[in-house]
Amino acid sequence: MTTAFDLAIMEPLNALSRVSMTADKTIYVIAQSDLLKGGVLLALLWWCWTRRSGTLIGPDLYSVRTIVGALIAIAVGRGLQNFLPMRLRPVHNPDIDFVVPHDVNAWAVDGWSSFPSDHAVLFFALATALWWANRTVGIVAFLWTLVVICLPRVYLGLHYPTDILAGGVVGVLIMIAVLTVPVPAGLRDWLGRMQAVRPGLVYSLGFLVTLQMATLFANMRRLIDGAATVLLGP
């Protein structure tokens, strides 16, 4: 179902579709760029994680909490997409006469429900973690997530505004919960010892996990899909 809220935002945006091929292609390139999306937010997070103690895992376990919150957020977001009733994306919805911008492959996400936006779930969760550490950086992160990551997806017909709104709420609430939950002292001490004894292992794992976060776990999902195809057949 398309709400009046969705149409109030989408109709003015869609009126600009195909007016300029350069504009459409620019927005498409931005929407596809992992560097501009997760890369910027993860760079800011690494700065926030290490600026106090100079290490990845500080006494408050801020980096560990952020990573756990992101993993839970994307799992919940994907679960909601899979188990809630199917919602056709705007590019596939014949009821709204959506004008598809230049260069958009309307069938790339065919069969995937649009609600909620997993981009909004993950990246608003990361913006919340940044706001937790530094209010100014957090505000910039929220604006970046809204304008650079999510708004282009609405323009391109990949999501409705309510997909973005719902995903953002889910991501923010999950990250707040993870950042505030008490951590057992034993686990805190063990992680601190691991960093002291095996810093190379800790930092290399941190790099790999945050690389996947920056790309919305795209490579990991492709690897899992490929392994399933090999083991179970097409």
Walkthrough of the structure:
By secondary structure, this protein is an all-alpha fold. 69% of the residues lie in helices and 0% in strands. The protein is built from ten helices and no strands. It is globular and about 60 Å long. The mean pLDDT is 91.
Provide a quick synopsis of the model.
This protein is mainly alpha-helical and 234 residues long. It has helices at residues 4-14, 21-32, 35-50, 62-83, 118-133, 135-155, 161-180, 185-197, 199-214, 218-232. The radius of gyration is 19 Å and the shape is globular.
Number of β-strand runs: 0
- How many DSSP helices? 10
Question: Percent range for helical residues?
Answer: 55-70%
User: Low-confidence runs (pLDDT<50, min 5 residues)?
Assistant: none
Query: Largest sheet, described in full?
Result: none
Please tell me how large the radius of gyration is.
Answer: 19 Å
Provide the β-strand percentage band.
under 5%
Instruction: Briefly note the structural class of the backbone.
Output: mainly alpha
Q: Quick one: overall form?
A: globular
- Helix-strand string: HHHHHHHHHH
Keywords for this entry:
234 residues, mainly alpha, 69% helix, 0% strand, globular
